[in-house]
Amino acid sequence: MSKKPKKNLGLWMLTTLVAGNMIGSGIFLLPSNLASIGSISLFSWCITATGAFLLAIVFAKTSLIIPRAGGPYAYAQKGFGDFIGFQTAYNYWIAIWVGNAAIIVALIGYLTVFWPALEHPAFGCLLGISVLWFFTLVNIIGVKSVGVTQIVTTICKLIPIILVAILGWGYFHPEYLTQSYNISNTSNFSAITHAATLTLWAFIGLESATVPADYVDNPTRNIPLATLLGTGIAAIVYIASSAAIMGMIPANVLAQSMSPFAAAAGIIFGHWGNWLIAFGATVSCLGALNGWTLLQGQIPMVAADDNLFPKIFAKRNKDGIPVNSLLITSALITLLLLLTSSPNLINQFKIIILIAALTSLVPYLYTAISEVIMLKKGEYPHSRFHTIVAFLAAIYAFWAIFGSGEDIIFYGSMLIFSSIPLYAFVTWKKRSLA
User: Fold this and answer.
1) According to CATH, what is the number of the domain 11-428?
2) How far is CA 109 from CA 77, 87, 147, 149, 264, in A?
3) In this structure, what are the phi and psi dihedrals at residue 39, rounded to the nearest 5 degrees?
4) 291-335 residue pLDDT tens
5) 271, 263, 240: which is closest to 166 by C-alpha?
6) Where are the domains of the chain?
């Protein structure tokens, strides 16, 4: 019998888990990517934020219908059954640990500002692996330590971003926006769609509060509130900072910048602005890694409880922490970091990251449709509003997947289909042990 976990995650710990998992390394690069499209991309931020809120409402409502750990996995299993549940857990788990490897790579990149020696692949890889296992240890010590760490890192990461978002308006040039409205050489609709695909990645993680539900104090109140509050904080930070930077730096210059926030901070604070942003980006990566490490142990644990993952993932320590699940997943991340420490594998690694982002969108689609199915069965109290929101969220998730591009959809589909023979093996194994 598994140990009953301690409920150490309160509202603000959960809110910073959601916001901290979303505000990772991507925000510090997105303004440059969007500048090549034009200031029209600000509309994309608004559309994406709306879609993210629809999904946040879905997760908030579904967490009340199914008050158990697992987040997207638990909801997909309830709505569609074991097969889709397994597929969701499998792909979501892969997206988490591959994404964690990407966060670590980005972290090392920002740390080179302070220690140029980290540009050597061996040194950078060694430090990255050390940081990974430090946060694995933090998670093993207990969920409360994760929550406290998340509050501290989220506050620290928001300070430099908010400073740029507020003080940047003193250096704002409206003509920079009007002169580069749409420079993508495509129609306005195509430009907005492409930019929305980019901005969507910044909202991955909005479901974070639903995953460790067993550790949450007063989950029926705190999970929905944290999901909506965390998404709102991220949306405001994203839109305000992107608009400020686009008005501070000409589009042709911004599009070529490898560190747009550092460039903006340099205008406001002078030469040490680069250090300020490097610090903020470093803390941002650390906070995101801390939060996602918590989730990397939860998903396989809950699936193993339902006999859909090997039982080794279900084992907890005396505090209810899935130690085996954390250790196995961190070992896989370590292996991936070692494989990608060679510069020759960087391009392949980028493809893997994009595929991981796609596989995290599929659970969003499944969750929205699952809510529709559960509500239509009449087993749970609901209003027409919740059904309409779930339909709109499903349409948005499908559109976002469609906008990922043919190549990424193809490779992502292969990863999703690979779950079919694995599910057959798990089912056979389960029946052979019965």
Assistant:
1) 1.20.1740.10
2) 39, 33, 26, 22, 19
3) -70, -10
4) 888 888 888 888 888 888 888 888 888 878 888 999 999 998 898
5) 240
6) 11-428
